[in-house]
Design brief:
It contains 14 helices and 17 strands. By secondary structure, the chain is of the alpha/beta class. The chain binds NADP nicotinamide-adenine-dinucleotide phosphate and L-homoserine.
Length: 428
């Protein structure tokens, strides 16, 4: 009689780097449990790498290959676990693999945020599983929540801290008064930041994750190009001190909204009240907040949290293979909602500038804002530096277009020596 213990589903790993080696280790360690959980054993029988001659701790060398054909032509392999990253050759390999009858699990946010549509269409055409839980927020199972557990909810806003490196840097700047460069150096030393941290600190990594979540939450395709991104490189310890004075912390926030005038998705540093639940997500943790109803929190990066999300997907796929029900949960983007024009988006703004310390300066700046329909909510003036004073203005919620029009004039005023910082403020 066939039992759970003697059924075997075979898988191939594409990549044996940080994430790939974690996946191999986890699948080996939990083999015994998995036969009970999924009704089958899972064996990783081949691993694709660039350099197959390199020794890799914990991975038997005979499994390694640098030849994709050995995997695609092996009909005993049912699942491809893609953890090599990048757009090509990953995209071509996955399309070929589906054509050859293989199910897909991937952690590749760059690929999904740009080409998810084509890949998911292909999976649907063949009736295969295509899963990507690990692409967003590490071990936080947010894709499953959006696609299944909360699919009956009308989710109109998804807010998230979805980049561990930048959250670690901002936490150090907030709690220990570090400047950006010092905090980035520490993140690199501790292994949080990648060798090239550009995608993290410029907000691109978080932008890709927000595109993926917005697509699923609003059932309408959002690609990375649709996301407005701004990084944290210009945030200073001084901005963070002013934020504290205003009862806020600064976080790199992803915000996706489904409004009457279209979808808006952005990733930007923002002031957020220190009483908001997201303000409590510190260090390299990620958190996602859905329409004020639910918050999900956990480790968003690294070998084992990511491997755990991938392993969860692999078990699900293996179960679906055993029960012959792959392709149950495919692409959920059945609407084509418009994107909101950037000028129509609304926000509160924190503005820090150096101005002439003389009578009438504040009144002239206030009058430019007033003429452009920008209402001022708060003003702080201090730190006199010679003939100059540092002025911090926080606006009420205004249209971005109106704020930008006002700023064009303010930047050219003779009493304004320098606009040092503009940061958005979360809330009404
Ligand atoms: P990594 O450490 O750079 O590992 C990449 C692996 O893929 C290496 O083993 C490399 O082989 C192999 N590879 C790359 N290009 C290849 C090619 N053209 N042909 C064959 N093998 C190739 O990357 P990682 O940090 O594990 O990330 C992998 C994926 O997971 C990425 O999509 C990333 O965005 C995603 N992800 C990472 C994290 C994280 O915390 N690191 C979290 C979530 C998602 P060699 O070893 O021979 O060079
Ligand atoms: N570089 C990413 C982060 C890793 O810092 O969150 C996972 O996507």
């Amino acid at each position: 009689m066939e039992t759970a213990q003697n059924k075997i589903v075979k898988a191939a790993l594409l990549g044996a780097g940080t994430v790939g080696s974690g996946v191999y280790q986890l699948v080996q360690e939990r083999q015994e449990d998995f036969s009970h959980i999924c009704g089958t054993q899972i064996q990783i029988t081949k691993i694709l790498v660039r350099d197959a001659s390199k020794e890799r701790e914990g991975i038997p060398s005979p499994l390694l290959t640098d030849n994709w054909n050995e995997i695609i032509e092996d009909d005993s392999i049912s699942i491809i676990i893609e953890v090599m990253g990048g757009i090509e050759p990953a995209k071509s390999y996955l399309l070929e693999a589906m054509k050859a009858g293989k199910q897909i699990v991937t952690a590749n946010k760059d690929l999904i945020a740009e080409h998810g549509h084509e890949l998911l269409d292909s999976a649907e055409k063949y009736g295969w599983d295509f899963k990507f839980e690990a692409a967003v927020a590490g071990c936080v199972p947010i894709i499953q929540v959006l696609k299944q557990s909360m699919s009956s909810e009308n989710i109109t806003e998804v807010m998230g801290i979805v980049n561990g490196t930048t959250n670690f840097i901002l936490t150090k700047m907030t709690q220990e008064g570090m400047e950006f460069a010092q905090a980035l150096a520490l993140a690199t030393e501790l292994g949080y930041a990648e060798a090239d941290p550009t995608a993290d600190i410029q907000g691109l990594d978080a932008g890709r994750k927000m595109a993926i979540m917005a697509s699923i939450a609003f059932n309408s395709r959002v690609t990375f190009d649709d996301v407005i991104t701004e990084g944290i490189t210009q945030i200073s310890a001084k901005d963070i001190r002013y934020a504290k004075e205003l009862g806020c912390v600064i976080k790199l926030l992803g915000v996706a909204r489904n409004t009457e005038n279209g979808i808006e998705v952005s990733v930007r540093p923002m002031l957020i009240p220190e009483t908001h639940a997201l303000a409590t997500a510190n260090d390299s943790f990620n958190a996602v907040f859905l329409t004020g109803d639910a918050m999900f929190y956990g480790r968003g990066a690294g070998e084992l949290p990511t491997a755990s999300a991938i392993a969860g997907d692999v078990f699900d796929v293996a179960r679906n293979i055993v029960f012959e029900c792959t392709g149950r949960i495919g692409c959920t983007c059945y609407k084509q909602l418009p994107l909101k024009a950037a000028d129509e988006m609304e926000s509160r703004f924190f503005l820090r500038m150096h101005v002439s310390d003389c009578a009438g300066t504040l009144a002239s700046i206030a009058s430019v804002f007033g003429n452009n329909n920008v209402s001022i909510a708060q003003v702080i003036q201090k730190n006199k530096e010679g003939e100059l004073a540092e002025l911090v203005v926080v606006t009420s919620k205004v249209k971005e277009g109106n704020f930008n029009d006002a700023m064009m004039i303010i930047e050219g005023m003779s009493v304004v020596q320098k606009v040092s910082k503009v940061i958005r403020v979360y809330g009404d």
